[in-house]
Amino acid sequence: MMGIGSICVAGGGAMGLGIVRSLVAAGYETWLMGRDPGTPKPGLPEGVRRIGLDPAASAPPDLLIESIPEEMALKRQFLAAVEAAWGGRTIVTSNTSTLPLQDLADGLRRPERFCGLHYMYPADTMPFVELIAVRQSDPAMLDALEAVMARTGKQTLRLKKPIAGGLVNRLQHAMANEAYWMVAEGAVDIATVDLMIRRLLAPRMCVTGLVEQKDLSGTGTHTTVQAEIVPVLHHEGHAAPWLAGLPARGEAGAEAGLGFYDWRAADPAAYRAYAARNTARMQALQAEVEAERAVVAPRPRIHPAR
Question: For residues 298 and 306, what is the distance between their CA atoms, to the nearest angstrom?
Fold first, then answer.
C-alpha cells in the first residue's frame, strides 16, 4: 500500500482548519498552505507547518487535500501549479462538493493520482468523508486514502464515479428542494418541515436507513408509490425562486439575525454548542444501534447500473 506520512491541506477556512485538526489528532505530519503563512491562525493546532500558496517553494508532501474556494478556474490554476511543482510524487485530492471532478481530472497530467475527498462540516468531528473516484483513479491510491481516513477516525463513503453534489449533498438537496417548493406553494411552513425531519424521518432512518426500510414495508407498495409520486415532484431545473431573496435582503442566517428563521432573540453561539453537544450524543447512540443491527441485518445486494 502507498505510504502516506505528510499531508498538506490547501485552504485555511473553517473546513480546512477542521481537516487539519483531524489529521494532527491522528498523528500525521500536517501542513497548512494559505495566504500569509506568518500570520497567527486562531484554532490551528501546534506543530502544523505553514507554507505559502506557491507549491514550488516547498518539497512535495505525500498527499494534498485541496480546500480552496469553489471556483473552477481557480482550482484548475492551482492544481496545474501543484503538478508543475510536485509532479506525480503527491496524491492530489479535492474537497469540492459541487464542481465537476472529472473535468478537474481531465485537465491533469497525472489524473490517476487524483480523486475527490469530500469532508462534512465540521470536518474534525463528523465521522464520514466521501471518497470519489474519477475515471482514471488508481485503485491502490483509493485504498491508501481509505486507510488514512480510518486512522483519523472517519468512515469513507466510496463513490465509483463523480456525480453532481456527491452522495450526501445530492440526497440532502433533493429533499430540501421539495421542501422549498412546498413552502412556495403554501402547503407547509419551514418549522413543520424541520419538525417532521427531526422527530419522524431522522429517528427511523437512523435505524433502518432510507432504502432498507422499504423491504420491511414491501417493495410492491414502495414501487407503486414511487410511480405515483415521482412524476409530480418538482423537476423545474432550478431552485425555488424565493430562496434567492433571503441573501439578497441581507437575511443570511443566524449571525445576520434573520434567515429561514428569526434569530434576533436567540444566541447563535449557544445554539451551535447545543447542536454540537447533542450531535455527539446521537452519534454515540448510533454506534450502539449499528452494533446491534449487525446481528440481525440482511446482506447488501449489488444492483445493476443502468
Answer: 24
Cβ 123 vs Cβ 97: under 8 Å: no
CA–CA separation, 231 and 242 (whole Å): 23
pTM of the predicted protein model = 0.89
| 220-242 pLDDT per residue, tens | 999 999 999 999 999 999 999 99
**Arithmetic mean of pLDDT over the chain:** 95
Give the 3-state DSSP-derived string for 158-185, with helices as H, strands as E and coil as C: EECCCCCCHHHHHHHHHHHHHHHHHHHC
- C-alpha of 268 from chain center: 23
Length of the chain, in residues: 306
Pairing of strands 29-33, 6-10: parallel
C-alpha cell at position 78: 492551482
Q: How far apart are CA 1 and CA 227, in angstroms?
A: 46
- 160 CB-near residues (< 8 Å, 6+ apart): 133
pLDDT digits 0-9 by tens, 253-289: 999 999 999 999 999 999 999 998 999 999 999 999 9
196: region left, alpha or beta (phi > 0 left; psi from -120 to 50 alpha) = alpha
Region for 36 from its dihedrals, namely left if φ exceeds 0, alpha if ψ lies in -120 to 50, beta otherwise: left
Instruction: List the domains of the chain with CATH numbers.
Output: 6-159 (3.40.50.720), 169-235 (no CATH)
* Burial bucket for residue 29 (CB in 10 Å: 0-12, 13-18, 19+): middle
